[in-house]
Amino acid sequence: xxxxxxxxxxxxxxxxxxxxxxxxxxxxxxxxxxxxxxxxxxxxxxxxxxxxxxxxxxxxxxxxxxxxxxxxxxxxxxxxxxxxxxxxxxxxxxxxxxxxxxxxxxxxxxxxxxxxxxxxxxxxxxxxxxxxxxxxxxxxxxxxxxxxxxxxxxxxxxxxxxxxxxxxxxxxxxxxxxxxxxxxxxxxxxxxxxxxxxxxxxxxxxxxxxxxxxxxxxxxxxxxxxxxxxxxxxxxxx
Length: 238
Description:
Elements: H1 11-64, E1 86-89, E2 92-96, E3 100-105, H2 107-111, E4 131-135, H3 140-143, E5 154-156, E6 166-178, E7 183-193, E8 222-231
Antiparallel strand pairs: 1-2, 2-3, 3-4, 4-5, 6-7, 7-8
């Protein structure tokens, strides 16, 4: 008598196999998500750092080719005739270095919303400035603080891509000067970063921790830059 016995999987074996495959797929998915998050965070950090370095180098080079200048803050109540080359407003500011001037609006002003400061710098087409370098011989934008920025003579220094980089704060002060050599040193502090208002702390100096559960922390990064720039080696003082 011939027996034809064929072994197969039991129901329990099939269930164990399916469970193992499901766990494996979940682990693969979680790993992929984690890698994607790390990648996005790395891209955000890189863009902020590259932008900060580029702007720092740009300012150092422009100041190096300028003669010493007055950076007494021209606040909201300062007269237009004040000789300072540094204009300060709640929503932004200006710095005029002779050949080129710089104009910016802070991220809080660009985002708008209740309680946000007013946008200070606008182009002559009425669009807001982000952080622009402008051909401005003689520093007319600081001599007349109400002038609009000529769009045809300006180039933006910060990108408006997925990360929407902005300037969160800026300050400059003269730390020392030498009348004999006609040189001066300036200390600049600026904060550059993304502009997701949900993700930023109230002082715009850092991102909220992931535990806060708002926005996408992988697209948030803020960095402070402290630089020293030297002006001089030219006759006269602006």
